[in-house]
Design a protein that fits this description.
By secondary structure, this protein is of the alpha+beta class. It is built from 3 helices and 7 strands; from the N terminus they run ββββαβββαα. It has helices at about 90-100, 160-165, 170-180, and strands spanning about 45-55, 60-70, 75, 80, 100-120, 125-140, 155. Pfam families: NUDIX.
């Protein structure tokens, strides 16, 4: 089920800057707008995201990294638009760096379908979105990152991540990862 792991993200030192300059294609800033956005079958917006994880410092299990959404009224894992010039893996890694300031090794978790709270399709229905989600085993946590002033990050137990997560489809992704990797979450 999982794709081969790959190391993601460019070395910020190779871009001639610090961790705030970590986005290899857009140094120090997040990509915004939807002019390069990918759309799939029947007009579904394609997005990519990561469920960042790490071993707990005490060795007793794993933690999940959650970030606040743009409005600060809910917790999510990093995700965003999958653009025309990127693979799904590249988009997921970029979103994780921009929104949470992390890089790591990716494994494919699968696709999740949801309805956008923002957009509508040609029939006036909420826009259908298809999210490609990867589990990211975090290898680097940057002290500075592009969206650090608009998002707060928090490492938490998987149960807490599920309880605090704003979106049902993201909770489903966390549960699928836990089942796949044998993580006991009792939720």
């Amino acid at each position: 089920m999982a794709s081969p792991s790959s190391q993601t993200g460019a070395d910020p030192s190779s871009a001639g800057g610090d961790a705030a300059d970590a986005s290899s294609s857009h140094a120090g800033r997040s990509r915004v707008g939807r002019e390069n956005q990918r759309y799939g079958e029947a007009g579904a917006r394609l997005v990519a995201g990561c469920l960042p994880i790490r071993a707990r410092a005490d060795g007793a299990g794993v933690e999940v990294l959650m970030v606040t959404n743009k409005h600060g009224d809910g917790m999510i894992f990093p995700k965003g638009g999958w653009e025309n010039d990127e693979t799904a893996e590249d988009a997921a890694a970029r979103e994780s760096m921009e929104e949470a300031g992390v890089r790591g090794d990716l494994s494919d978790l699968g696709e999740f379908t949801f309805r956008s709270r923002k957009g509508t399709d040609s029939d006036g229905d909420k826009l259908r979105c298809v999210a490609r989600v990867f589990v990211m085993r975090v290898t680097e946590e940057m002290p500075r990152w592009p969206e650090q002033h608009s998002r707060h990050r928090s490492w938490c137990h998987p149960k807490v991540a599920i309880a605090s997560c704003k979106h049902d489809w993201m909770r489903d992704a966390i549960r699928l990862w836990a089942r796949r990797d044998g993580i006991d979450i009792d939720v």
